[in-house]
Amino acid sequence: MKKKNTISILIVDDHSIVRAGLKALLDTEEDFCVVGEAENGLKAIQSYECLRPDLVLMDQRMPVKDGREATREICRLHPAARILMLSTYQGDEEINSSLEAGAMGYVFKNSPGEDLLPALWAVFKGEHWIPREVGSRLAGRSTLEKLTDREVDVLQRLVSGDSNKELADKMEITEHTVKAHLKSILGKMQVRDRTEAVTVGLRRGIIRLPE
Amino acid sequence: MKKKNTISILIVDDHSIVRAGLKALLDTEEDFCVVGEAENGLKAIQSYECLRPDLVLMDQRMPVKDGREATREICRLHPAARILMLSTYQGDEEINSSLEAGAMGYVFKNSPGEDLLPALWAVFKGEHWIPREVGSRLAGRSTLEKLTDREVDVLQRLVSGDSNKELADKMEITEHTVKAHLKSILGKMQVRDRTEAVTVGLRRGIIRLPE
DNA sequence: TTGGGGATCCCCCTAAATGGGGATATTCCT
DNA sequence: AGGAATATCCCCATTTAGGGGGATCCCCAA
Fold it and tell me: Would the pTM of this model clear 0.70, i.e. be above it?
């Protein structure tokens, strides 16, 4: 249903009601036209291929494939894609990695509704859009050491409450190795124990609670 | 802005953009009229007092005071209040306690957008509205023991990653007592260790991550 | 008033987690 | 080829967590 001279938008969010709300919100604007919806990252990639929208409004956390992964994939195939990430605030890590993945902008769900349209316009014009309160931090930060992929893997598994032995079995490595990773995790994150590692990881957006 | 013969609605959600979306969605319906918004439970109570809307569309998880607490409070003051809870699926416990608190209905954010209107109508007419897939379970359940206030307190403090000794100092009790509470928590929640207790507690909405 | 639940405290014991020191192989980058 | 980073494994030691018993005390409701 794309009309001439309107900006076509693909909405990606796992909450159907939120999608309906966003669509209603954008459809009140003459310049924007919601041409498609997707409920997870995988479907977002498929829909992008079919629809080639001018903009993608993408939620961060979704089942199956999250916003970051979908963004990375879409941008790999279509470097000119314009993607605006929409998310609850989860820590700078999440914003940072979204931008790394190729998103052009980032808007918090709890920022005023009026902020959405300027952000969409900016991204459409190829500009970056980052919440003011974060922009500064993003520049002069990062004394925090980055976790390796494997360490993130271990950290994510910690949320299950498994012991080191159980983790070792599930990961098919020895308990020694699990402990080695964990030691590195605790050191890098500057936390005292696995419980704090999990809660800090959740707050920073490094890991998430299972569905 | 309430017109004659329309149903006035108060929207409560901590995400401004979601509120804007819901408002846009409801305003496309002739019969509904969004007369107010609130961003947390406290403001919801205040707004309810001022506006006396026909319906409240209330998000479950919010800072300051969550949907359950606000619902309990509003229903205590106004037993005739019609409140529809809107939330991500978080386990039956959350639904159950919402209904106990006085909500007339419960809708998942990831159910189709079309489900919202019938739910609002049902609640407006004084009927209950519960997601089909949950209704059956709610009847024959509840083997989960409830945590005491003190236990919830301990559980919440676990997210800091403190050791039992540190918790004891901060709570000004002995480590023995902390361990006693913890033992009870682990037993009631049927989890194996403090880390799992924290993640399960977060998922059930019993506790939350600090801001 | 008698009971029960909750909060507090105590002991003992085993299993688990943590912190220190290592070693080796692979992969990737220069 | 050389070097860095990563993942994997191992030893040691101490601290902590968790499970099993308990015991008071207090308050509130039957």
Answer: no
